[in-house]
Write a structure and sequence with these properties.
The protein has 236 residues and is an alpha+beta fold. It folds into two domains: 96 residues, 2-Layer Sandwich (Pseudouridine synthase), CATH 3.30.2350; 100 residues, Pseudouridine synthase (2-Layer Sandwich), CATH 3.30.2350.10. It is 15% helix and 32% strand. The chain contains three helices and twelve strands; from the N terminus they run ββαββαββββββαββ. A four-stranded antiparallel sheet has the order 1-2-4-3. Strand 1 and strand 2 form a beta hairpin.
Length: 236
């Protein structure tokens, strides 16, 4: 088949039934520039893999939103629908910020980017949280009892080739990108051999919390332990 100027190529996707996913999005805050949503666990933010319609983005496209009046100067920058400016893992619940205008999208994205820049500058863990307009805090239940009340993990995270994983595997490796996580103990559950922690991340590397907690010897409860990859060797 040869395509020429003006030709149209149509792909008819085979129908499939997507797995169940939560569909209720609670709006916590909304103004002319942005929306803050309470994303439930189990709902994917962007379409990928077997989830194409049951995503946050799809719901943002379907819902009617309050937009600035036509007389407002922001009106010309308004997008067709709000768009997420950061991501939360499908299994993670929490606050998700979405931009209504192009300007808000650029500005909010730059605030999140500051965290990654600071992580690269402050890999020794000093001045954590300074010079940032947006802070990200998560709660996690980990295996084992953390000895210290607080810890700062600055292990780089990168993508490496791994047998059986076509897209590669994100791991803790010296050749990866800078990443910083501040871990604080909230409660030690000695009878369960588990610890409830709060994690503040200063960058947004894929699976950062899971990788960093596994790196310090306390993987998330119910999650497979991530590998540490050094000089071509894997260590669990």
């Amino acid at each position: 088949m040869i395509l020429r100027e003006g030709s149209k190529l149509v792909y008819h996707r085979l129908a499939w039934k997507e797995p169940f996913a939560p569909h209720l999005l609670q709006v916590l805050y909304e103004d002319d520039d942005m929306v803050a949503l309470n994303k439930p666990s189990g709902l994917q933010v962007l379409p990928k893999g077997i989830f194409q319609q049951r995503t946050v983005l799809a719901q943002l496209q379907w819902k009617e939103w309050k937009m600035p009046p036509s007389s407002c100067s922001k009106r010309k920058n308004v997008q067709l629908h709000p768009v997420p400016v950061h991501r939360l893992g499908r299994g993670t619940s929490g606050l998700l910020l979405c931009a209504k205008t192009k300007l808000a999208k650029v500005q909010l994205a730059s605030y999140f980017a500051e965290g990654a820049a600071n992580a690269e500058k402050k890999r020794d863990g000093t001045e954590v949280g300074k010079e940032r307009k947006i802070s990200k805090f998560y709660r996690a239940l980990v295996t084992g009892i953390l000895e210290h009340d607080g810890d700062v993990v600055t292990q780089p995270i990168g993508l490496v080739h791994y047998p059986g994983v076509a897209e590669g595997l994100y791991v803790a490796c010296s050749s990866g990108k800078p990443a910083m996580s501040k871990v604080c103990v909230l409660e030690r559950l000695a009878h369960q051999n588990q610890t409830l922690v709060q994690v503040e991340i200063h960058s947004g590397r894929p699976h950062q919390i899971r990788i960093h907690l596994a790196y310090i010897g306390h993987p998330l409860v119910g999650k497979p332990k991530h590998f540490c990859y050094c000089d071509g060797h894997d260590f669990t």
